């Protein structure tokens, strides 16, 4: 296990708003003994649990092995926005990278990812404070509206339901004059992400999936025509394996951890705000994240708290500085709030890639994995899980929306990880230009 990952997994679940307000997770426990299944899934975040659900719906025997508990990693710590786009890439970037057919298929999968999340929520009656009133990406500079226009045109060409708002429409939707227009995706929204992960686990268990918490996978190797996964107190033999650990990936599979850069991101919630403020701030109740590289993001909780956060360049005195930076950001964007009191703050890692694309891998015959969601994991991971389930039940790689690529470990990975926060300085410079 990497030196970075061990303290993360040894630490308790953070004292987040999600942990304080989430539904109780289902009963799970460590694997004790040896089992045989069709597919073993490593990781009980949204990707792994979506994979398990979609497999079990087809009658496949599945075991999910989780080092801690469902939603413990990034899936239970993020902002909870359900966003049907990638963070920095548009459909044209995907077709340039993978060709027209595969790039368009991936883009359509991304564009339909938020709708898939809310379909699962409705189908399994998941209690996760799900709100599907849209996701909005406002332009932080006038020149970014041209990019928004192009983005809307590209998604519409693929059949996605998106719209372009001018400055006045954006002000009405968001309750502020801070931005200059926006792209809106009505299928997006927001959830309590830890509740969603726990409810996905509950749905999977109801379908017959075995979920083993507190069960880190120690090794993986060939077992005849299948694979054997060893854990501290048992083992799993499976025909196929899905690795779904993203930013919390360890050294289980050679090179996979070093192909992404874990970035620490802070999230926080205000104390509950008065109803009058709730009516004037984000009155549309959409999830909001703007066009900055140093992202400004906001959304409401079910109990009238505003959720926001930030990423820092320096690690010294990080939590206090993150709180102050976020409070200042809220004051600037929504001056009607005044000086908000922060009730809770917490952090988690997201997995970044050098090319800003999510990476999908056929690691060996019968072993697949997905990493590098670049801050878009909730909707994207759910859709990826469905595709990985299709592959595990015999759909050929050429028919999937996922472009499988070789694992490419980053040179000087540990050094890159150590100084990755400095990249935020470059993004902030770009944010000052059109």
TrEMBL record:
The keyword Transmembrane helix does not apply. The keyword Ion transport does not apply. InterPro entries: FAD-dep_OxRdtase (IPR006076), FAD/NAD-bd_sf (IPR036188). Gene3D superfamilies: D-Amino Acid Oxidase, subunit A, domain 2, FAD/NAD(P)-binding domain. Keywords: Oxidoreductase. GO terms for molecular function: oxidoreductase activity. It comes from the Bacteria. Its EC number is 1.-.-.-. This is NAD(P)/FAD-dependent oxidoreductase. It comes from Azospirillum argentinense.
